[in-house]
Amino acid sequence: MAVRDAGSLLVGLLVLFHTWGAWAAVEVNMEDRVEVFRGETASIACMFTSSEGIGAMIIQWFYVTRGGERQNIYYQDATTKIVARGTPFTDRISVNGTGATGDVVLTISNVQLQDELEFICLIGSVTGEAGEGRTKLRVFETPDLPTIESVQTGISVSEDSLSKIGTCEVKNGFPKPNITWYRNNTPLRTAQDVVKVVPSITSESSGLFSVKSELSMKVVKEDKDDVFYCEVTYFVPGGTRMTETNRVNITVYYPSTAVSIWVESPKGKIKEGDSIELHCRGNGNTPSSIISIKHTKTDQTWEGNVLVLRNVTRLNTGDYTCTSMDTDTFEEITDYTTVFVNYLKPAVVIPENTTVVVQGDELKATCNALSPLQTHTAWFKDGVEVSTGHTLILQDATFDTAGAYVCVVTVPEIEGMETRKTLVVQVQGPPEIMEKDHTEMEQIFEKTVELSCHARGFPAPSITWTTSDGKVLKTASQEDTEEGVQSVVTIKVDSDITAFCNASNEHGTAAVTFNIKAITHTTTPATTTTTTTTSNPISSTTVKAQTANPPEKVKKEGSGVIIAVIIICILLLAILGSVLYFLYKKGKICGRSGKQDLTKEKSNKDNIVVEMKSDNTEEAVLLGVNGEKQPPSDQSGEYLDVQK
Ligand SMILES: *[C@@H]1O[C@H](CO)[C@@H](O)[C@H](O)[C@H]1NC(C)=O
Ligand SMILES: *[C@@H]1O[C@H](CO)[C@@H](O)[C@H](O)[C@H]1NC(C)=O
Ligand SMILES: *[C@@H]1O[C@H](CO)[C@@H](O)[C@H](O)[C@H]1NC(C)=O
Questions:
Q1: SS3 letters for 392-458?
Q2: Which ligand does the CA of 461 lie closest to?
Q3: Is 456 within a domain?
Q4: What CATH number should be reported for the domain holding residue 169?
Q5: Residue 504's domain spans which residues?
């Protein structure tokens, strides 16, 4: 009802105006505002009615200058359409509709920020009646993406005033965008002594707005985990839009309320020679504190929160104190840890180094190495474990007992912790000949033999070589072996030899006897004077050496018998010859058969003549009949074998 009353009142007023003035009879309707992005085209509609009907209306468009005056930009009547010259809209506007339909539209292309004005549509009738309407043009520009920058330096909680957190900026928006700060999704508003947001607006030469916002806060320790960002809100045609910056955080410095020190490495027990790494850390985050580590026992101090001690010894054992001092407040907080360096002192063996035990006696040795940890002791001989425990007992010592005993002390708990010491045990006793083989041997005359004698005993035996005829032989070489002494002599075999190796020390004597039988290897060719032949591949040096010696017994006997037989034959032949000659001279019994027998016998027996060339020469020279050498082919099968 109220609306209807108001309507009738308005009609009444119009009627009143109609009677007073001509223009009141035209009614114009327009939108309050038209909103467009910059650069787009704006359409401003103007609808009208007239009590006289609509036709042949005069249509005019104006804008309101910043000074409040109206400036014509367009005129249209039944016959003409005029765009006013020299206005900012001259080239950009057009109006469609003739007015006959009761509406016209002003179109503005490429809308600029400066176009944000009020536009008037004035409709006049030919009778002089007129009406007008107004529309505001709103222009928008979407701003650039916003940016955020947080302070890179750490912020101390002990700051008295507010500390700057960061700045957000959004550029080139229209109209002015708004910036809102958020901390962990909660918007921040300026609050006395706690939060301060200071915006600043820049009007760019383009007419666009850039907005900056700086956030300052009273920072507390909890803010170290806070995330900050900005939200930007801006208007667009028909509403608002929002964008956000990325998230940033800040470094908050706050003092430690406690420190802790610990051994970072090694994990587990520490032994001498290890490298220790001690770490110290406070529960605060502060560059303004000085951390130092001190070895309480020695007062040695190191700066820094990490301490590396290389090749530690038991002297490094003790408490290590870490102190953190705040350089702002000079407050100190400390913590300590105890380091224990385990050790294993060198093994001590009693008796030391070398000991002597009499054959058959018992030896007792001990081995100890000091350590705060449980140790394990074992004795080794030639790499074989012979005893476990500190004490080594060797009963009924023999030469085989002698040797190096290594005591090895280990700490089972810590790998690689070990000490070892060697004890050399010598067993006292009379000499003992080690090898008694090869005591019977044969050797060719004039060759040499090497006799070796290996004797053990303690003290080391002295070795002498003698022969059965009491001659002392010169030792060719003598060397100390692991067990005893090895002595070597070289003897030239000129007859059968018996040699003794006597080893003796203060406890007794041992001897070994060597029997060398002298032998010979040689042959004599049957009928040659110059060629020396041997049936065995004995070297010529051997044979030559033998020429200087008297012939062997066997050979002497062999050749002697043959020579005797031959001489007897010759004598018999001579006697026979003499008898036959005598008979022939007598002319009595010279028969055919007798003559034939003689020749036959002669040819059979006289074709080999053996002659001893000289005394002491074993080479029997075989001569042919009448002293001629016989060709070698005839000699086959006729060698004189003088060998046994
Ligand atoms: C910006 O803030 C002002 C003041 O609070 C407010 O009037 C305006 O509407 C805001 N603008 C946007 C785009 O939210
Ligand atoms: C905040 O800082 C921490 C460490 O300084 C980092 O790991 C994390 O990614 C940061 N967060 C943001 C949103 O920047
Ligand atoms: C060496 O030993 C032999 C055999 O036991 C002995 O006859 C000889 O007298 C000893 N000689 C020496 C020098 O001891």
A1: EEECCCCHHHCEEEEEEEECCCCCCCEEEEEEEEEEEEEEEECCCCCCEEEEECCCEEEEEEEEEEE
A2: 3
A3: yes
A4: 2.60.40.10
A5: 435-550
